[in-house]
Amino acid sequence: AVLKHPYTVLCDPADDTIYVTSFTLNHVVRLRMTSRTAAQYKVFIRGAELDGPIGMAIDEERHLYVASFTNDHILRVHADTGELLGTFGNDEEMDCPEGIALGPDGTLYVVSSLLPYVVRYQPKTGKFLGQFAPPVSGAATPHR
């Protein structure tokens, strides 16, 4: 099987590609779509750094960001080649990262299933920019 426990699907706005995480098989599959039919697929990202891929985001420079749930990392990968460009994050900043999104200012936002706040990163460098708790959590000021 190419997909086992698929978790997230991401459409690339630049072309006819979608990416699907396969949580149990620890890889990301890239599918080229033609008329809503999968014309070509390939296991795109696989490796020791990827353990339980869940959330994904893609930027305008064709960098794909993948949340690695089990080892508390974000992978930065070239969306065309699959080349690993780097990893960032650790278990002190996030715990089981799931959802990730790029903000309009380029900041990468990450939520973890076991923490009550949002983590911010500069995605090109992986620099940790801090955490903040949504108002519904009762926190009035950002965590540092």
UniProtKB/TrEMBL annotation:
SUPFAM superfamilies: NHL repeat. This is SMP-30/Gluconolactonase/LRE-like region domain-containing protein. Residues 11-113 form the SMP-30/Gluconolactonase/LRE-like region domain. The lineage of its organism: Eukaryota, Haptista, Haptophyta, Prymnesiophyceae, Phaeocystales. It comes from Phaeocystis antarctica. Pfam families: SGL.
